[in-house]
Amino acid sequence: MPFLPETRCSRRHTAPYYPRRLRRSEPRRWPKRWPLPPPSRACAADNLDTSKEGLPVTEAELYEIHRLKTGALLRAACVMGVQCAGGTPEQAAAAEEYAMNLGLAFQIRDDVLDTISTEDELGKTIGSDAAEKKTTFVSLLGIEECGRLVHLHTEKAKAAAAGHFADTEFLCWLADLLADRRK
Hints:
This protein is an all-alpha fold. It has 9 helices and no strands. Helix content is 60%, strand content 0%.
């Protein structure tokens, strides 16, 4: 990998090698083409989420909160995987689209489970979002519409991966697993 510092030791079987730090005059080795969000966006999602506690939130704001939180975490993992494997920019864009839709489907399903599941089944406190007066997809749209949206975003995620990767069986299995989860 050309962007990593040299990690070879001068002698065999020595203690772990810690690469030297780059001087300020040396160029950064992180490719600028990697579409990862700056750290300030992750903080913006938490700020947006906490600033809206107890206040009405629109559907667009709720999508934005979860795009910047759950979606961004999955996006980073998927895009880094493509980049580390030497993928093309088209594959990185497909991974990003897959992750964003998977993140939305996951979050909507989580809101549904927080409403319809039991503590024994889910393994955590139920109704915590309602108790904290947080706006959720269920409180905005209802359980039926949320179920439809989970499957819509799951299908969008699978469609994003299709045609860009040699084998999408695992990605499709994961999307279906998260959409139909009970925990």
